[in-house]
Amino acid sequence: MRETSNPVFRSLPRQQGGYAQFGTGYAGGYPGYQPYQGYQNQPYVQAGVSRPLTIDDVVTKTGITLGVLVMSAVASYFLVGSNLALAAPLLWIGMIGGIALLLIGIFGRKQDNPAFVLTYAVLEGLVLGTFSYVVANFMVRGVSAGALISQAIVGTLGVFFGMLVVYKTGAIRVTPKFTRFTVAAGFGAVVLMLVNLVISLFTHGAGPLRDGGPLAILFSILMIGLASFFFLIDFDAADKLIRAGAPEKAAWGIALGLTVTLVWVYLEILRLLSYFQRN
Q1: Which residues of 165-188 are buried (b: 16+ CB within 10 A; e: fewer)?
Q2: Closest to 2 (Cα-Cα) out of 187, 241, 163
Q3: Cα dihedral sign for 20, 11, 255, 146?
Q4: Among 21, 118, 129, 169, which one is least packed by beta carbons within 10 Å?
Q5: What SS3 string covers 17-46?
Q6: What own/partner pairs with CB < 8 Å and gap ≥ 24 does 23-26 have?
Q7: Which ranges constitute the DSSP H helices of the chain?
Q8: How far apart are CA 2 and CA 244, in angstroms?
Q9: How many CB atoms lie within 10 A of CB 279?
């Protein structure tokens, strides 16, 4: 089995054998398919130890992770609403903590640890709730906070299910070249965001990529498109792990990857919507 270039999934465990399907591949292997050799002799499936990963595991663990994320976001939203002074601390704690935890998970191979994944969900919830409150209540005009946030949620779900259909139908194939290009573009986007952050610190503004102008609108559209491609990589990684018979705990790593992409898409859509509602 080909390894993914997505750093969130790269170090998740694998195992020989097939099980349920997530996408369109064959559980028993396609012509020329060779099982991943690095883990084929490890006894993952033992009585009382583990069992192969299924699509139900992926759906359940992702649902739990998103549930924790939403609860954290709702709590932080109302905390900031009751005391605006909490906005900056909650936002920075969530951002720095989430990034640090994600890096630890990638390089320390903690993605399949439920406590780790759920802690990340709590931290990202702080970011989503705080950012949503600030944007919806202070950065827009002519639209209610509930309406703007609802539009962003609907847009995020639309992108998710739209890319799931694209993946299931094979309209865009997730090839090694596609994955390398998307991941490289993702790193490039992070660099641009950091440069914009530095500029904003020196200019006391939002920076050219986040000030709501034409360049900022174009950048957000590009980021939504790029994040959509990451959904395809997430689906492909989940598909391959299921077909390779990875242990059920790998579902937590898949949930982590999907959560990272969902948060990214939501934040970019919310930003984009806010640009069109400003004075």
Answers
A1: ebbeeeeeebeeebbeebbebbee
A2: 241
A3: negative
A4: 169
A5: CCCCCCCCCCCCCCCCCCCCCCCCCCCCCC
A6: 23/167, 23/168, 23/235, 23/236, 23/239, 24/168, 24/170, 25/239, 25/240, 25/243, 26/243
A7: 55-82, 87-108, 114-138, 145-169, 176-203, 214-243, 250-275
A8: 10
A9: 6
Q: What's the chain's length in residues?
A: 279
Find the angle CA(224)-CA(134)-CA(155) to the nearest 5 degrees. 30
**Residue ranges of E strands in the chain:** none
Q: Assess contact for 137 and 145: CB atoms under 8 A.
A: yes
Give helix then strand counts, H and E, for the chain.
Answer: 7, 0
Q: Give the start-to-end residue ranges of the domains of the chain.
A: 55-275
pTM for this prediction: 0.78
Residue that is written with structure tokens 């194939």 in the block: 173
Q: Are 235 and 244 in contact (CB under 8 A)?
A: no
Token pair for residue 161? 């299910």
How far, CA to CA in Å, does 123 sit from each of 81, 88, 109? 18, 14, 19
Tracing tokens 């739990």 back to the chain, one arrives at 64
Q: Are 140 and 152 in contact (CB under 8 A)?
A: no
Q: What is the pLDDT of residues 150-192, one digit of tens each?
A: 999 999 999 999 999 999 988 888 889 999 999 999 999 989 9
Q: How far apart are CA 61 and CA 53, in angstroms?
A: 11
Q: Is the pLDDT of residue 41 over 80?
A: no
